[in-house]
Design a protein that fits this description.
The protein has 382 residues and is an alpha/beta fold. Helix content is 40%, strand content 13%. The strands form three sheets. A seven-stranded mixed sheet has the order 2-8-7-6-5-3-4, with helices on both faces. A three-stranded antiparallel sheet has the order 9-10-12. A two-stranded parallel ribbon has the order 1-11. The longest helix has 22 residues.
């Protein structure tokens, strides 16, 4: 039985066009971009061209005193840790605010800050998975060094009102970071239009390479590094930069921007076909978590009351369905989803919720096959 992969929020296979851009960079034989000789200078020029291209594609400022900075990292987790720890370290007497629905790389970093003595508060969510803006406004009455609210949730696909978060935080001169890892490549993402001070992304979520991520920073935002021992990237992320991975990152971004309208329609079509079949064939029904909120076109978080999520996950794997119960970074845990808990959902929904995320390789036929297999499994387990 051929497996239908519906875990694209975890990672995507690399686009052959992106793989070719990486291969071309390797064939060019770039040397260390930190070296001062001519081969090193050539590598530096290529690296900075790719960096500037990424900034432009994400809506940053590419020139002048206010130019947006892009720090290449190993991925989204490192970028999130860098911005939270890097800003909090400069103002340890001020609190850090993060939404209760953040990715484990943000919640884990926040917990580490709490252990070092920094006051951390979680901004609660409503039942639809959206951050409660009125609570954020009250929390900001206390001196704050950073607010972190993700752009789109990795489990439910719920899109957060980041522009409104920024507007509230500006009244208190508090910088805002957004984890846009799940948003880039699925919805329009414009760093300048959002108004945030820092933004995280990683190309392996939109058919680019693994092993590289990025942190966009406003020119005036200052933070401390996590690592030491080099001058690369203004000392914020020392270590030899990989020109080939930067080339792949830029190419994946180019394709995601150019093809976004087509991709969004296809992903929505797959999701709707999948849902339509389930509604007709799942006895006893199901619940779409975050249904009333704006959501990513490719993400569905469904609860099947009376069905244990882990049992369904294992049964689905045997039936040729690659799905998940939430973030891949927490997939080794049997603990209930922190996102769904923060939404205040009933235990029976939390215990029976699984995530389905579609990608460009998904065909409408595969969406129906997946729905057929899932319907049978749910009906049997019930």
């Amino acid at each position: 039985m051929e497996t239908v992969y519906l875990d694209y929020n975890s990672t995507t296979a690399i686009d052959p066009r992106v793989a070719e851009a990486i291969s071309e960079a390797y064939r060019s034989g770039y040397f260390n971009p930190a070296s001062q000789h001519r081969p090193g200078q050539a590598a530096r020029r290529a690296l900075e061209e790719h960096r500037a291209g990424c900034v432009r594609l994400l809506g940053g400022i590419t020139s002048g005193m206010r130019a947006t900075r892009l720090v290449f990292t190993s991925g989204g987790t490192e970028a999130n840790n860098l911005v939270l720890a890097g800003i909090a370290a400069r103002q340890p007497t001020r609190q850090v605010l993060v939404s209760a629905g953040e990715h484990p790389s943000v919640l884990g970093a926040a917990e580490h800050l709490r252990k070092t003595g920094i006051h951390v508060e979680l901004i609660p969510l409503d039942g639809g998975g959206r951050v409660l803006l009125e609570v954020l406004a009250r929390l900001l009455e206390r001196p704050t060094s950073l607010v972190s609210v993700m752009l789109a949730n990795n489990e439910t696909g719920v899109i957060q009102p980041v522009e409104e978060v920024v507007e509230i935080c500006r009244r208190h001169n508090v910088p805002v970071h957004t984890d846009a890892v799940q948003a880039v490549g699925k919805i329009p993402v414009d760093f300048s239009a959002l108004g945030v001070d820092a933004l995280t992304f990683t190309p392996h979520k939109f058919y680019g390479p693994r092993g590289i991520g990025g942190l966009l920073l406003k020119a005036e935002l200052v933070l401390d590094p996590l690592h030491f021992g080099g001058f690369q990237q203004a000392g914020l992320r020392p270590g030899t930069e990989d020109v080939a991975l930067a080339a792949g990152c830029r190419r994946a971004l180019e394709l995601s921007v150019d093809e976004l309208p087509v991709r969004a329609v296809h992903l929505r079509d797959c999701s709707e076909k999948f849902l339509a079949y389930l509604r007709e064939h799942v006895a006893g029904g199901f619940v779409v978590n975050g249904l009333e909120a704006s959501r990513l076109p490719n993400t569905l978080n469904l609860a099947f009351p009376g069905v244990d999520r882990q049992a369904l996950l294992l049964a689905a794997d045997f039936a040729g369905l690659a799905i998940s119960t939430g973030s891949a970074c927490a997939s080794g845990s049997s603990e209930p989803s922190s996102v769904l808990l923060a939404m205040g959902l009933p235990k029976e929904l939390i215990d029976s919720s699984v995530r389905f995320s579609f990608g460009m390789p998904t065909t409408l036929g595969e969406a129906e096959v997946a729905a057929t297999r899932l319907s049978r499994l749910v009906n049997e387990l019930r």
